[in-house]
Every structure is written in C-alpha cells, then in structure tokens.
Design goal:
disordered C terminus; single chain; 230 residues; Alpha-Beta Plaits; elongated; alpha+beta; 5 strands; five-stranded antiparallel β-sheet
C-alpha cells in the first residue's frame, strides 16, 4: 500500500478557486482510478494558503497507472498552476515510512509544463484512426464536406484552450464549420464515442491535462461567431 501526499502552497486568496478545480475534475478522476483505495483533501486547519491531497493506493503499479512513470512528481490540473506558488509530493508505505524524498516544483515551472502540453494540438495518426472509426461515412452527394480530421482538431483546440470560436486559427478551417460539426456530433451521440475513442489513446497523466476540456465542452456550443463559413 502506498500513501501519496500532495501539498500545494497557494497564492493569496486562491483557496476557493483551487478547491473548485480539484473537486470538479481531479477528485472524480482519482475516485474512478483502479487501485485508489481512499482520498482526503482540503486545507489544513486554520490555513488558507495551503491545500493537501492524501490518497491511498493499493500498490505502486496502480499509482503508476494513474500518475504515469513520473509518479514521483507533482501532478496538477489545467488552470491550477496560476493559482499556486509551489507544489510538492511525497510517498509513504503503510507504516508511514518515507519511500521518496519530497519532490517540490514552482508554480512557474508547472505553468510551463501545462502550456507545453496544451500546445500539442495535432492528432497523432493513431488517435485519428481511433476517432475515424466511429465517425459516419462522408456523404458522396451535395457540397464537399470539410475535412473531418482538420475539423476535429479545430474542435479539440477550442476545448483544450477554452478560447472563443472566433479565435480559432485559420489552419483549422472555418470556426462556424467546427462549431456546427460539434453540435451535430453531440446531438447524434457521435461526439461521446469520439471522445471515448480519444481518451483510450491517452495515458492517465495526459487525461489529467485534458480534464478541463470536459468543462469547456459544456460552454463551447454556445460560443457562436459572426465570421462566415468558407
């Protein structure tokens, strides 16, 4: 059994925001992770500049499946880096004997890692193949359909960054086309299958990075743009 202790020192006044991000995204994912036996989280008594997450794991393999090979490092969710000063993590066995030295990293470094991960906007061939299998076959009649791969990457860009549709880079085609395609896929149930197919290609750490996209998805269909489709 392994006890993982994550500790974040927060910027002034950011406790509520950090707690909200954790409860909306991090907590559900941790609870659903195989091998996670228990978890407790919150600020220490009387402290408003600190947040601690204690999780208990069945074994090292289950922890690695969740956190990845860099399991000894602090893992944060998108949007958390700007809220904290430093984050550290330490591991203990069932007798509370320390298994690793406390690994601390500054909020600036975590922000750089987050931005680097979020800039990876192109689908790999493997990811596209998984998504393509659940998409409907293109219609052979009528106006030529915008390329599904480019359109999907445009949708993912918006979900990943939370940007308005009007800020979609031209490389992804028309923002209106991407918006309509997302609405169409959501209404038909296709998007749920596409999302599941993409998640199956990601490591748990990559899924954590993508966690914010779930919230952005609820807002994205309402973000219409005045720019005309091409």
């Amino acid at each position: 059994m392994i006890i993982r202790v994550f500790r974040a020192r927060l910027k002034p006044g950011q406790l509520e925001a950090f707690t909200r991000v954790y409860e909306e995204y991090g907590q559900p994912m941790m609870r659903a992770a195989p091998g996670c036996l228990a978890q407790r989280a919150g600020p220490p008594a009387g402290r408003h500049d600190e947040f601690v997450i204690v999780s208990v794991w069945q074994d090292l393999d289950s922890l690695k499946a969740f956190a990845g090979e860099a399991w000894q490092e602090a893992i944060i969710l998108p949007g958390e880096a700007v809220l904290l000063v430093t984050a550290s993590v330490q591991h203990f066995d069932e007798s509370y004997r320390s298994l690793t030295q406390a690994h601390a990293v500054s909020g600036g470094v975590l922000r750089q890692r987050e931005e680097s991960a979020l800039r990876a906007t192109s689908l790999t061939d493997t990811q596209w193949e998984q998504a393509r299998r659940v998409l409907p076959a293109p219609q052979r009649e009528g106006r030529p359909r915008a390329d599904d791969r480019r359109t999907l990457e445009g949708i993912l860009y918006i979900l990943r960054t939370g940007a308005p549709w009007s800020d979609l880079p031209r490389a992804y085609g028309s923002p209106v086309t991407c918006w309509r395609r997302l609405v169409e896929w959501e209404a038909s149930g296709i998007w749920e299958r596409v999302w599941a197919a993409l998640l199956a290609t990601l490591s748990m750490q990559e899924r954590l990075i993508w966690a914010g996209a779930v919230g952005n998805l609820r807002r994205a269909p309402r973000r219409r743009t005045r720019r005309k489709a091409s």
